[in-house]
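[recover] target loaded
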């Protein structure tokens, strides 16, 4: 399987989970997948495969400067590993936000905006959720 194929597979893998979390967050299938972190675990396994391959091929990675990090992302495999990292961690953050919302009871439409922002822009959605969470804490 080429890196391009894997890129397509991982994107297809996360999309249904995000749709479930945004549209049907209380459905038992959504809750099952969130509870057992099925999709992030699959992504983590794929990520580890690519990282181990990179370590075996090139040794330790240098994250010490922007230039060295840019140099790491000059191969398809490294960019793919980075992409999978984003997909997995953004999804875990989205799952955490939904779990937090069981106590906060933020309206589902507002949560949908937070989740969509997290899916598309990661930290932006997280920041939006944290601001809303903080404002809920002040009013509660």
């Amino acid at each position: 399987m080429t890196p391009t194929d894997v890129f397509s597979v991982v994107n297809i893998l996360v999309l249904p989970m995000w749709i479930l979390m945004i549209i049907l967050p209380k459905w038992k299938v959504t809750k099952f997948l969130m509870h057992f972190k099925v999709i992030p675990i699959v992504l983590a396994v794929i990520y580890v495969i690519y990282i181990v391959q990179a370590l075996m091929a090139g040794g330790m990675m240098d994250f010490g400067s922007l230039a060295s990090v840019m140099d790491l992302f000059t191969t398809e495999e490294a960019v793919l590993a980075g992409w999978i990292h984003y997909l997995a961690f953004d999804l875990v953050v989205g799952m955490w936000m939904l779990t937090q919302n069981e106590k906060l009871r933020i309206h589902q439409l507002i949560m949908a905006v937070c989740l969509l922002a997290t899916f598309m822009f990661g930290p932006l959605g997280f920041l939006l959720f944290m601001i809303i969470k903080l404002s809920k804490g002040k009013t509660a």
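[recover] notes: The chain has a mean pLDDT of 92.
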